[in-house]
Design brief:
Number of strands of chain A: 13
Number of helices of chain B: 12
Radius of gyration of chain A: 24 Å
Shape of chain B: globular
Helix content of chain B: over 70%
CATH architecture of the largest domain in chain A: 3-Layer(aba) Sandwich
Order of helices and strands of chain B: HHHHHHHHHHHH
Largest sheet of chain A: 6 strands, mixed
Strand order of the largest sheet of chain A: 5-6-7-3-8-9
Radius of gyration of chain B: 19 Å
Number of strands of chain B: 0
Helix content of chain A: 25-40%
Structural class of chain A: alpha/beta
Oligomer: heterodimer
Number of domains of chain B: 1
Strand content of chain B: under 5%
Largest interface: A-B, 33 and 23 residues
């Protein structure tokens, strides 16, 4: 299957700053990739290059087999900018009718698009009166116009409440099932975890990690934390068994080990039987994995 | 074409909501009626119908008002989109920058056309009402309307260009006012000063016609005055109108909008969202 988006050795510099260094990635139809990174890591720059909004200095970018920003690429790509804005004097419906007309679609689809993002009640109100979340929904609605083959979404769920976020990811699931490739950036790691096929971590303009969450977890090899609650009267004896542990003020004994040592350690704790009141195993969080990769190279 | 029309529809709606349609039309009607009332005195023995005289007065009015209205409507066109943050999304749509500007131009020209038609029309009605013979001047009224639209197109294009160059509405507004002052007010003052110092010499006979054709506002004035053969009632810079062939001023009127829009598109292409 030909990839919808191919980026190879992409380089972009702004004066003396290298915003993107030799970034390569491919995105197949129907796949969802999440782009993570600090502010200024190059996420938005990369998206703008894919959209053809800004030129690049080196490497190659192919969007649906065409040059980014070319007429044929623009027909097949939809974009949701970060903090999407519209003219405040237009109503949601008028704005969508306009966008439909620009894509050569029937403007009467505006009503249906607005109902898909739950904005039917505000269709005839001016966008100037909308909340940030409502504007974001208008932004989402316009990305659904004309079955795009590639969706580029810059922080799409910012300003949305948790329920709307879930609805939004349901919409994306539907689109990717129909073969739309999706490239999105997000700060909210937990939602990206469950709803994307691949995670890409950009740091200082470089792609420092790429893979499924499980891949990244394995590669990061971050320690697993144990939190052991001793049975009453056994705190001292437990501490003696695990001298490497740290005794907290809350009475919990904290241990950590590598992935490989996890099961043996668990067996040692279990062997203590009645001396242990409770036990929690805490795997490295997505935040831990993210910081592990994005802080490499002295960041 | 449908993309241009869709853009024009949206722009017209926005201009209507922002009361530009009302402001432009109200301004033109008000000034035209004041002129019609004030200018009705010196007729009678000039030998032309009352409407032609009104058109001569309206020409002097339009030279100031049409560029001003055009610049006021256009200075925000690109800079406003940049400031609101609506430009990046728009540019990812399958619509070219030329189409975007043409759509805006179409909407703004429609508003200008409406404003001048209603404004001049009101003055014409007043003239015909007081002198039925004034109906003979309808031809010059029509000429004034379409040449006003062309003059407006030139300054709309210039406004878009300044808007794209400034990239911020405040900067664009400043540039637009500066352009209006230079092109419409100071240019003529400078020419008048040169005529006075020249005393009918080489400048007045050779350079002045070129200088008048080089400025779209003057070309507009010269075209309407010489076409209406109402030079005698106009005076001032307009007095020079008789020496410039009609075809030349018409050509200047037609070429300026094209040049201004080409400049605007070139400036807009340089805007990186």
């Amino acid at each position: 299957m030909t990839p919808t988006l191919t980026i190879s050795r992409l380089t972009k510099r702004f004066q003396s700053v290298e915003a993107l260094k030799q970034v390569s990635l491919t995105l197949a139809p129907g796949k969802r990739a999440a782009l993570l990174g600090h502010n200024g890591a190059g996420k938005s720059t990369m998206m703008k290059i894919v959209l053809g909004l800004i030129p690049f200095d080196g490497g190659e970018v192919s969007v649906c087999g065409a040059h980014p920003g070319s007429a044929s690429a623009r027909v097949q790509v939809a974009y949701l900018p970060e903090n999407v804005a519209f003219h405040p004097a237009l109503t949601g419906e008028e704005q969508l009718r306009h966008y439909l007309a620009l894509r050569g679609e029937n403007p009467s689809q505006a009503t249906e698009l607005l109902s898909r993002v739950g904005l039917t009640h505000a269709a005839r109100r001016r966008i100037g009166t909308y909340s940030k979340g409502m504007r974001q929904r208008v932004g989402l609605a316009q990305t659904l116009i004309g079955r795009p083959r590639l969706l580029v979404l810059d922080e799409p769920t910012s300003g949305l409440d948790p329920v709307s976020r879930r609805d939004f990811y349901d919409l994306l699931d539907g689109l990717s099932a129909e073969g739309t490739a999706i490239l999105l950036s997000s700060h909210v790691l937990t939602e990206v975890e469950a709803r994307t096929d691949r995670i890409l971590i950009l740091s200082g303009g470089e792609l420092v990690a790429e893979g499924t969450l499980a891949d990244l977890r394995t590669r990061a090899a971050l320690p697993v934390a144990f939190s052991v609650r001793p049975a009453p009267g056994h705190a001292a004896s437990l501490a003696a068994v695990f001298p490497e542990g740290v005794q907290g003020d809350d009475g919990l004994l904290r241990l950590s080990c590598s992935q490989a040592e996890k099961l043996p350690l668990l067996a040692r704790i279990a062997a203590l039987e009645s001396a242990v009141a409770d036990l929690d195993v805490i795997p490295p969080s997505l935040e831990d994995i993210y910081s592990h990769f994005s802080r490499r190279d002295g960041q | 074409m449908s993309r241009i029309l869709a853009t024009a529809m949206s722009e017209f709606r926005i201009a209507f909501r922002n009361r530009w349609v009302t402001i432009a039309t109200g301004m033109m009607v008000l000034f035209a009626l004041v002129l019609a009332a004030a200018g009705s005195a010196p007729t009678g023995d000039v030998g032309v119908d009352r409407l032609s005289v009104t058109v001569a007065s309206l020409t002097s009015l339009a030279v100031y008002l049409v560029p001003l209205l055009a610049l006021l409507m256009s200075f925000d066109a690109v800079a406003g989109e940049v400031e609101r943050g609506t430009l990046p999304l728009l540019l990812t749509y399958p619509v070219s920058r030329l189409q975007i500007l043409l759509g805006k131009l179409l909407a703004h020209l429609a508003i200008l056309g409406l404003a001048v038609t209603l404004g001049y029309g009101a003055a014409a009605l007043a003239a015909i009402w007081s002198d039925p013979g004034a109906i003979a001047g309808l031809g010059s009224l029509w000429r004034l309307i379409w040449s006003s639209v062309l003059l407006g197109a030139t300054f709309l294009g210039a406004g878009y260009a300044l808007s794209a160059l400034a990239r911020r509405p405040s900067g664009a507004a400043g540039l637009a006012i500066a352009l209006w002052l230079v092109a419409v007010v100071l240019y003529d003052l400078a020419l008048l000063a040169l005529i006075v110092t020249d005393g009918g010499g080489a400048f007045t006979t050779h350079a002045l016609p070129v200088a008048l054709l080089a400025n779209p506002a003057d070309a507009f004035r010269v075209f309407n005055l010489s076409a209406a053969e109402a030079v005698s009632v106009a005076g001032g810079i307009g007095g020079a109108a008789g020496t410039i062939p009609l075809g030349q001023s018409a050509a200047s009127l037609l070429l300026w909008p094209l040049a201004a829009i080409a400049f605007a598109v070139a400036a807009f292409r340089k805007v990186m969202p």
